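To close the section, here is one more complete example, presented without commentary so you can practise reading it yourself. The ligand is adenosine-5'-diphosphate.
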Amino acid sequence: MGRIIGILSGKGGVGKTTLSANLGTVLSHEYKKKVVLIDGNVTAPNLDLHFGLYDEFQYTLRDVLNGNVPIDQAINLCSRTGVKIVQSPLSKGKLNLKNLKSVLRKLEKTHDFVILDCAPALGEEVYQIMDMIDEAIIVTMPLIPEVASALKTINTLNEKKKVILGLVVNRAKNKKYELKIDEIKAVSKLPVLSVIQEDTKIPYSISQGMPIVIYDKNSKVSTQFRRLAANLIGQEFIEPNILERLASLFNLKKRTEPIFIQENTPQF
Ligand code: ADP
Ligand code: MG
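Output:
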């Protein structure tokens, strides 16, 4: 049985989608796990953009939840990363998440990881998704409002008796005004799984339609994502050596178009 993990936060803009994309990519590309990423931010979906998927495919989560097509028809395989992605529709109209639970239960039978990139805050869709996940990772920034909002999310998950794996502290700048990691641990009563630095390479990699762990595998931030993924599956992480780190400094890859294959499409 696969693990159904929700990536949650209190506030938006803290890096949930970035974490979902990079975690999913490392687990799939580096550790050969079967990973499906679901854009659970149904009001403002954008997970697909992190993979250079700019078109809405024929079938999205809406078609699946409305019972029009089975889930495998809404799965897009990104051939560059090995990750499978289920898009949420950009078009207007509320999505009824009632049927999502049975979809997730089906996916966990055939995948090692089902990762849900969630919406920020505690709206109805997040409450619903919280009930459907097995485990949660909370993303925050080391700032007072972001941590305070994360605590609300943590409280709600605790009330629902959900397993919270811990916090990912993202966009850390090592500034005096930031909360210290020990303070975040103390106030949340949770482990900090990873601290990820603020790095302009991340928005740059998104502009190239690639998760940073593919775009620049041995950069400092990529190493932080890769170490986190290794810890999540209990694998020893081998740090990149000095030559690999050096190569990463000069390694600006040219953009190449990713190839997406819909699961139901015959492949020749
Ligand atoms: P969320 O899903 O929580 O709203 P995103 O993953 O969309 O957050 O990230 C919000 C913005 O922050 C994006 O433009 C992304 O490029 C940027 N970002 C995320 N993590 C980092 C980081 N570690 N360093 C620099 N920019 C980052
Ligand atoms: Mg997001």
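Once you have examined the tokens, check your reading against these statements. Residues 19 and 225 are 8 Å apart (CA to CA). The beta strands are 3-9, 35-40, 75-78, 84-86, 113-118, 135-140, 163-172, 192-197, 260-262.
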